[in-house]
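testing teh design pipeline on a random one, pls ignore if ur not involved
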């Protein structure tokens, strides 16, 4: 068993203001993601993506992530609680964000963004997909620092006793997710971006990201403790896995649609 590194979730105290690692993870993910998109756009420009539009992307991304992530958590995980306590909806500092809701929020935001700037949606979303694992990586590290979303009880040598996870050692599933959703998925997408013609087939990289995330999350959830207030559906599947099934299907559809050879009529 490894000792849990008891890191203060608050990175910096500025008088009454507490800046948390979780907030810094969001900021780092968004800014580094924007840098990746800007770098690849400079290498091979996306039509109509002007410097002004590129700068505006950060605002659109933040709105999509925060609004979508919060609404997704409310609707997918705790609808009864938040409908009974609507005043708690805006208490973002207490936690409660959903990746699947954030994904829907970002897609919606960038559909509107692309319409405003007359940009082809999949050309841009492919670059955004390549950058997203950076944010996932930092977000999962922040989950680990917060000692939340811990894994199931285990006897592996690297099991940890989390401060709020009881007395038994558990999988550090946040680190598994940081590795699979962050490092591995980012590496796969970068290899496809750099060494294949995936950008010539808009939608391919977006499909790989969606399907790849779904696979990584489904596997990681096998080691992660289900949410106590939800448990398992049908006795064996978690909410996270359930939400990933349509993602996997759509991701595979995108990959096939974009890469399958066209048959002339």
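output:
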């Amino acid at each position: 068993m490894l000792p849990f590194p008891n890191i203060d979730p608050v990175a910096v105290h500025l008088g009454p203001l507490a800046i948390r690692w979780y907030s810094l993870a969001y900021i780092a993910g968004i800014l580094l993601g924007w840098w990746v998109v800007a770098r690849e756009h400079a290498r091979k420009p996306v039509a109509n993506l002007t410097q002004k539009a590129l700068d505006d992307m950060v605002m659109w991304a933040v709105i999509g992530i925060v609004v979508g992530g919060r609404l997704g958590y409310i609707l997918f995980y705790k609808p009864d609680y938040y409908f009974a306590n609507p005043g708690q909806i805006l208490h973002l500092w207490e936690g409660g964000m959903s990746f699947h809701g954030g994904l829907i929020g970002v897609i919606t935001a960038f559909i509107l963004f692309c319409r405003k700037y007359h940009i082809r949606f999949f050309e841009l979303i492919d670059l955004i997909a390549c950058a997203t694992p950076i944010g996932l990586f930092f977000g999962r590290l922040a989950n680990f620092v917060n000692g939340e979303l811990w894994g199931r009880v285990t006897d592996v040598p690297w099991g940890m006793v989390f401060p709020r996870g009881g007395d038994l050692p558990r999988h550090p599933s946040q680190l598994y997710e940081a590795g699979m959703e962050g490092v591995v998925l980012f590496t796969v997408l970068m290899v496809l971006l750099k060494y294949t013609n995936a950008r010539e087939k808009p939608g391919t990289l977006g499909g790989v990201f969606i399907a790849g995330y779904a696979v990584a999350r489904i596997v990681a959830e096998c080691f992660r403790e289900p949410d106590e207030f939800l448990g398992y559906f049908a006795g064996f599947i978690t909410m996270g896995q359930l939400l990933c099934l349509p993602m996997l299907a759509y991701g595979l559809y995108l990959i096939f649609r974009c890469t399958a050879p066209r048959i002339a009529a």
